[in-house]
Amino acid sequence: MGLEYETNYFQRTARYMRWVAALVLAALAAGCGGGGGEGSESATSCSAGQTEALEAQMGSQLAQASSEVDFSFSVQRKDGRRYNYNRGSSTLQTRYESASTSKLVSSVIIMRLVERGYLNLAAKPQDLIASWPIGSSDTLYPMNMLNLMSFTSGLTVEPTCLNDPNTNLEACVDNIASTNAGNGIVPGSQFFYAATHQQVAGLMAVKARGMTWPDIFAEFKRQTGLFSTTTFDVPSLSNPRVAGGMHFTGDEYMAFLRAFHDGLLLNAASMSQLLADHTASVPIVYSPFMSGIGGGPGLGEDWHFGLGLAHECRSAKFNCVAGARVSSPGALGSYPFWDRTKNYTGIVVRQGVFGTLIKGIGIERSVQPLIEQWATCT
Q1: Number of domains, the chain
Q2: Terminal Cα-to-Cα distance of the chain (whole angstroms)
Q3: Does residue 131 belong to any structural domain of this protein?
């Protein structure tokens, strides 16, 4: 995992802050980091002291970051060096509920089943789910796995079964289909962020593989050595929310991000499909990153979407390079990210109330300029 420097919340003392400021000024005077703008991904020679000074400043900034709950933060750069920070009782081994941070994990699992021939992106729900209630006269009938994975299937209404521990995955998927039937939406014609799409995709995977979703996840864990203690059990093992139902730790998600970054989980064609902008030519009818979720605020930013991940863009209208920075934020405030331009991966893990989506993003942004300097040091 490389070198590790860890800062704890108790270090916020006046003496410590003066020491940090002196070290950072010395590092910047020596030219470490090269600035945080575009092109700062070029490697810069930094001494051990300069790198540690940047890490100390990152800790100082994170100590002041706005969060109503304890959190942990981790970031890893190309050479394997990793920086960790914990606030309060949170650690990178604390188990947290994932919310939508599981979307990326589920997409990778499904794309691996595609690679192995169990599924294909042209498959339709009715090809695999005998009880699928949407008939051929319905506009939703042509939806396929690609529509489901890109959240363009037309399944825009989330029934309460997604939060019901006493039902099962197949019954919930039938409910999703029945609830959305007759809505007049043509699959592939609009993006709508919802948990419905991956729930249907997950049941298609279950039928194709002949295993439950927790068993499919267990197979993925055995194949990769990842997520050893993570479970898909929200709201229950019988009705796992594919788009938001894990209990996980920050350390285990960081290992997943590193393997994803290193190209160890998917072949080149699958990675290209996953990372493509699948919303470039369709209207984004609902995105929580623009307008919020669960009554909480959004960012007012126009993000685009691949398969189970977001293409970030800090603009009210998408004017960014798709794939430059991708992430899978959750509505409880956890935030895994991969800056593909600056070449680092990281995560904020925390568990606020539903609707605190932007909290983790804000924590990372508070320290992002320093991360960008740190990521270039060699």
Answers
A1: 1
A2: 16
A3: yes
